Amino acid sequence: MNILIIGGGGFVGQKLAHKLAEGGTLRGTAISKIVLADIIDPAPVDASFPVETTTCNIADAASVADVLTGDIQVIYLLAAIVSAHAEEDFDLGWQINMMGAMHVLERARALGTKPVIVFTSSIAVYGGEVPDPIIDHTFLNPQTSYGAQKAVGELLLNDYSRKGFVDGRGFRLPTISVRPGKPNRAASSFMSSILREPLNGQEAVCPVEDDFLHYYLSPRKCVENLIRGAEIPAADLGQNRCMMMPGRMWSIRQLIDAMTAVAGPDPATRIRWDAQPEIKRIVSGWRFDLRPEKAIKLGLEADASFEDNIRYYLEDDQPAS
Ligand SMILES: NC(=O)c1ccc[n+]([C@@H]2O[C@H](COP(=O)([O-])OP(=O)(O)OC[C@H]3O[C@@H](n4cnc5c(N)ncnc54)[C@H](O)[C@@H]3O)[C@@H](O)[C@H]2O)c1
Question: Where are the beta strands (DSSP E) in 166-295?
Answer without folding.
Answer: 167-173, 175-176, 204-206, 213-217, 242-244, 248-251, 271-273
